[in-house]
Amino acid sequence: MATGRTHRPATRSRGIPEATVARLPLYLRALTALSERSVPTVSSEELAAAAGVNSAKLRKDFSYLGSYGTRGVGYDVEYLVYQISRELGLTQDWPVVIVGIGNLGAALANYGGFASRGFRVAALIDADPAMTGKPVAGIAVQHTDELEQIIADNGVSIGVIATPAGAAQQVCDRLVAAGVTSILNFAPTVLSVPDGVDVRKVDLSIELQILAFHEQRKAGEETGTPDEAASAQSAAPADAITPGAAAAAPAPLAPHRAAPGAGTDNGRQGPDGDVPAVMPA
Amino acid sequence: MATGRTHRPATRSRGIPEATVARLPLYLRALTALSERSVPTVSSEELAAAAGVNSAKLRKDFSYLGSYGTRGVGYDVEYLVYQISRELGLTQDWPVVIVGIGNLGAALANYGGFASRGFRVAALIDADPAMTGKPVAGIAVQHTDELEQIIADNGVSIGVIATPAGAAQQVCDRLVAAGVTSILNFAPTVLSVPDGVDVRKVDLSIELQILAFHEQRKAGEETGTPDEAASAQSAAPADAITPGAAAAAPAPLAPHRAAPGAGTDNGRQGPDGDVPAVMPA
DNA sequence: CCATCTTTGTGCACGCGTTCACAAAGACAT
DNA sequence: ATGTCTTTGTGAACGCGTGCACAAAGATGG
């Protein structure tokens, strides 16, 4: 109010909280849907419901962008779509390269969501010579050797890594060296990049494990006791540690309850620590 | 109702912070790698580096699980692998169904990370009759009609949705009705589920948009704050939509911005609000 | 058995994000 | 105009997560 939004109260450019940025795409999607139905305006309440968030949170989020609503009425859909798009930088064209054209890479290449929001697949790159030239999603796959050239020619600043874990860091380094400053990583590895480069990761395995955790917790609650406490700490890590000896089998200590599946496959090995996010191509 | 379910009241005595749970899989991966190299023990500092987190944070995270370390030495790798696996519920078998066998669904089915951590693909389901019986990743695709039966027969409690956005909610409802209580959603839609059901979403488009935002900001800083204050406020929402403004602001930044001269592009269409996460099968 | 050195476990403070609750702003009817 | 009603925008409180800094625990060496 006082400041209203006169001279971008500093809350502006640098201000938008990360959490808010992460939700803008969500609002944008909901708004786009409304726009297609020719809905002229929406209240924070309605839009919040559509986006699956709290209305107060939504209003606060929008407040970081400026005062784009009208009290007593709501927000103008079209206008808001434009404002958010602009804020997210979707009004410009973002050429993207996808490295690693395995199952996942191909799926990404075909993903319609790319093109629909200002993202353009500038090239598909794979290390397998057999893939070179092969068309995927209408685009001919190019060999890794061309990577630097492709990045430069197309002014690519966003790269998507869908290679096996083992190749991810190397690919990442090359992308960064070539000028890419934002990376979306699908490989199950922690990438190290220099300052100034953003990395976001999407990890299937992790998501499933988190679900498993909650699932287990739910199951435990239902049936009387999670027991946890029992084996919790008492399991005397003291003797189990034996550094030099490195007790070969850690399993024996906590008998724990018999798992439903009983499949104590625990000892899986996976040749490379963690399986690639996608087939090696 | 609402998008329901997110965090519980937190009254949980055995309450491991959500943020910690989300990192456990990360630690587990790093530990598994060490285990394969037969490294007996590791310090919080080393492990933290491998997992890409702060060592203090790692120690605090582990403290929620109990005191599994030895001062002056570090943590016993094997023992910790076991403890975390147990905590995450990975010592048991989790049958999973994947619904929507398009490009993405197929990629997921082939994803090695599934089997390697106690997750077992119990079935692949698709609505397209043409897909039925077709083997994907060594498993015959089954028709949606069988969904309920499959869930029941296999005791599935985790479902993965990789269908187009339009079918997601319906599939979700059926999964939940059939007994699934955890869902990993790849479709670009907000799913509403009853309380007690957990939903985690993986949204490609959103990740890219977030990257674009930062990318834009970075570009803007380089050249000297573009600052879109231009079309800032009141400008009658109605006509303001005409993105003539676009030209004014972010022009000089993007290295490429091959955007069509006619900034009017803004209205990129995207017929269905948001394209499916994967090709329709 | 004692001294020293290493590394964990955690108390504490800080900052971000969420939520509540309400005054102000505007639409709309009279 | 004026009053009523709706909905925004935001101040303030609260809670979670993060990171610092350090005491305690235990290993190691003499």
Automatic annotation (TrEMBL), chains A, B:
Annotated CoA-binding domain residues: 89-190
UniProt-listed GO biological process terms: negative regulation of DNA-templated transcription; response to redox state
GO cellular component: cytoplasm
This protein's record includes keyword Nucleus: no
Compositional bias of kind Low complexity: 226-263
Entries under InterPro entries matching the protein: CoA-bd, NAD(P)-bd_dom_sf, Rex_actinobacterial-type, Rex_DNA-bd_C_dom, Tscrpt_rep_Rex, WH-like_DNA-bd_sf, WH_DNA-bd_sf
SMART domains: CoA_binding (SM00881)
Portion annotated as DNA-binding: 26-65
Region feature (Disordered): 218-281
Record carries keyword Iron: no
Localisation: Cytoplasm
Keywords per UniProt: Cytoplasm, DNA-binding, NAD, Repressor, Transcription, Transcription regulation
Binding site for NAD(+): 100-105
Any one GO molecular-function label of the UniProt entry: DNA-binding transcription factor activity
Chief location category: cytoplasm
Function summary: Modulates transcription in response to changes in cellular NADH/NAD(+) redox state.
Record text on subunit structure and interactions: Homodimer.
Similarity comment: family membership: Belongs to the transcriptional regulatory Rex family.
Name assigned to this protein: Redox-sensing transcriptional repressor Rex
Protein's organism: Streptomyces bingchenggensis (strain BCW-1)
UniProt gene name: rex
